[in-house]
Amino acid sequence: xxxxxxxxxxxxxxxxxxxxxxxxxxxxxxxxxxxxxxxxxxxxxxxxxxxxxxxxxxxxxxxxxxxxxxxxxxxxxxxxxxxxxxxxxxxxxxxxxxxxxxxxxxxxxxxxxxxxxxxxxxxxxxxxxxxxxxxxxxxxxxxxxxxxxxxxxxxxxxxxxxxxxxxxxxxxxxxxxxxxxxxxxxxxxxxxxxxxxxxxxxxxxxxxxxxxxxxxxxxxxxxxxxxxxxxxxxxxxxxxxxxxxxxxx
Length: 249
Description:
Elements: E1 15-19, E2 27-33, E3 36-45, H1 50-54, E4 61-68, H2 80-83, H3 88-102, H4 107-110, E5 114-123, H5 128-149, E6 162-170, E7 173-176, H6 180-185, E8 188-195, E9 200-207, H7 214-244
Parallel strand pairs: 4-5
Antiparallel strand pairs: 1-2, 2-3, 3-5, 6-7, 6-8, 8-9
Helix pairs in contact: 3-5
């Protein structure tokens, strides 16, 4: 099928990672997937939440926060602080980011530390949650490598890379990595989070006033896994360059 931007059904938007975008963070990445741009920063604190101490839980913790900056959308989005509460969508997404990263970080190996992952959407054109997870995975990997470099840990606690991508059914056809116009029009909405070895972390799929068949689900899974493999390869290429060239200070 012909897509709005000329891509094939299995083609991702152009992907780019810019490192060191927030120098005070332990690891930071500006991830771009097409016109969607998200700053992901990982900050490591040498303490754990009080509830872990009270319950005598060993190891560390990782948590995430997500926000869309007011100018990230075509119509200005008021800041959550102006409304006095975090909107439900932001809560859902930051919990998803946290779950996705905790699935691949050895919290025992991390030790009594907290990894704060902050994802701020600069420009939204569909797939902000999946871009945030993909960028945050790199940011956390870089921050944890610094712990080893600083001799605070022997080995990084990140066990695997993780990435995420959207898919959907549009006019009866399955497509991957939806932009905003496609996201508005799809009959089925799908998000996949998976690790570099293909294990699933989370699968989200829902009909938008529609149903979908087992065959369509299989097609979306196949497109999602192919897309995630490409994203992981792009992440690995960035990390490989870091082994040669240190990140910006």
